[in-house]
Amino acid sequence: MRFCEPASGTEAGAPVIGIVGCGRMGTALAETFAAQGRPVLLASRGGRSASVLAERLPGARAGGLERVAREADIVALASPLAALHAEIAPRIRAHVAGKPVIDMSNPCGHDLLGHGSAAELVARLLPGGAVVKAFNCLSARQLAGVAHNGITLTVPIAGDDPRAKQAVRSIIESTGLDVADAGDLPGSRWIEALAQLLMRLEKQPGLGDAVGFRLLRLAACEVT
Prior knowledge:
Oligomer: single chain
Strand order of the largest sheet: 3-2-1-4-5-6-7-8
């Protein structure tokens, strides 16, 4: 698949963000970054959904999985864990070495098979990539509304590579979201557990995905 030429007016010097998966969450992420004028590369397993999305987003291009992983500076995985395991990881593994790789997945219990968390499994599938857990505690609708609803939600992140985490923190904060650092990659287990709690709360009548996570930083109290 041939890349289209990027639209003019993209943010100078901004990292190129590759998004693998153009479902609801991948689309919301692409729309958010494209609205900032960031260069975005899009890939989907079949290719069509990526091409259709790229046609309507300024500065976005569509391409094959391997090419997007190779040319992006940061790769965001917005695909189900089963698809990452079976098809996507083997195809992009050689192209993400040394790059921040954002894992956005929320697995079912049987997906992990003793790996601790989805992010830790992804790190094993992509041993050269610097995996950072992020964005899994937001719904697509919440992400799409970041610029309009006036509420600052918190995105917990976890990862072993400090530079990768800083790069991911930077692009998250640029959208107006808050970031909470949960430490190294095993901390992703708690982030994924938080997502499970939020999804459980969403089942309460009248809530749905109106439930979000916001970390409040309270002033330290003086001990007398």
